[in-house]
Sequence to fold (519 residues):
Amino acid sequence: TVLRSVFRTRVPLKVGRLCYSSSVPTTKLFINGKFVESKTAEWLDIQNPATNEVIARVPKATQEEMLAAVDSCSRAFHSWSETSILARQQVFLRYQQLIKDNIKELAKVITLEQGKTLADAEGDVFRGLQVVEHACSITSLMLGETLPSITKDMDTYTYRLPLGVCAGITPFNFPAMIPLWMFPMGMVCGNTYLLKPSERVPTCAMLLAKMLQDAGAPDGTLNIIHGQHDAVNFICDHPAIKAISFVGSNQAGEYIYERGSKNGKRVQSNMGAKNHGVVMPDANKENTLNQLVGAAFGAAGQRCMALSTAILVGEAQSWLPELIERAKALRVNAGDQPGADVGPLITPQAKQRVCSLIQSGVDEGAKLLLDGRNVKVKGYENGNFVGPTIISNVTPEMKCYTEEIFGPVLVVLEADSLDDAISLVNRNPYGNGTAIFTTNGATARKYTHEVDVGQVGVNVPIPVPLPMFSFTGSRGSFRGDMNFYGKQGVQFYTQIKTVTSQWKAEDATLKSPAVTMPT
Ligand code: NAD
Fold:
């Protein structure tokens, strides 16, 4: 297939020979500017989700290697933080061009390891690229504040300064976008960065590291380690690491937030979701059904902003048969195959989990209107495919509603009124994203004001903010004070130093000590 040839041919490409050296290729660590083979005895397989072939192995880095990586970050911090902001900006201006030039190569690697379609993989890179472009405006974003003459001869001003070594821990579902939410913002602020990519999709991060090096980032400014729990614990505990950015499941995110915070670090933790799409009967039917189907089943539902729950209000309940027809028309196939709409799930275990959550809905009395569990994909019989699935008559106590399914499954609930729909959404513990579909401005306004969710779309199914804003998931979907990217991203990766200075004319020199507080 195209992807298998990519796997062989990508080696001599511009981005260089970086991760593969034997017949079952191994993923390197990136330490102090070098791609190095791990000395570990523990390796994890990386499987192509469309075939389950083992395509590479990723090491669980040893303690020694992790220490070497963080030491390299610490050493590089001294010079990188003193490098002029214009020079740091130039690195990221070159970086954004390199990413643009290599978008298709990055997408192929993403499809190979993650499974999503090539077009969707390009979108994954593109949304990360936008954060790199945003990072290039750091000269404005990092401005401090000044207030002259706060008293006689005295001025106060603030600097935004980097923290030191920062670390990122990323999930499998966006191999490019999520690492790019992290290290470009962290580094452009003057921090150095330790990244631990998802062990299931590490290669894209390695390519991104190579491009960053080619863009001129000095050795040690970005280091990459691989692994699972030990690597995560190492990051949470190492005293040189001042801040942790995490994106992934609640189980890992809550743990990392707690352990990292206890150790005195800043932590921002973006976690799971259950995003509701509220469909009002006055909505534009054609648009709404298409948007709903795209947002529920795109990327096989493996997006934290997937619209995985529909609430049909009143008359809109009669739109279900058409919704099913549209979902049925999607083509399930390997991500590199022309016309593929829905690719495989990441692992056989993920498929099993999704199938059992579908079954739980049936067992608890919901109606399975479209069942994708037995989908067959010709030529890819061993892949982790689940076809679009729609479950209706779902109630809030059912497991298929309370758990994040993270598969191509849309659960459908019904509501009599907008108020009922809002109350349902607000009772759900997650607060990542939601959308309302309506042609009535007052309805849209009421929804956006009353719904307790951090990112709201009005006739926009996946309202992920562009990077001049921030990614503002809330409640059970987020732990921390400062969100990813945008102004908040800069706040997260910087601390403020406030300078108060007095320059008196010589004749105003104090004649005796001032022992009382100034009033
Ligand atoms: P995951 O939590 O399994 O893995 C994320 C990272 O944490 C990986 O690097 C992994 O090695 C590490 N990890 C996994 N389990 C751990 C544990 N028990 N202790 C410590 N570290 C652990 O997540 P995933 O399956 O890769 O990604 C899917 C999840 O990520 C979904 O829940 C999805 O909603 C969420 N997600 C959220 C956002 C967001 O912005 N809110 C974006 C993308 C994905």
Observations:
- The longest helix spans residues 63-82.
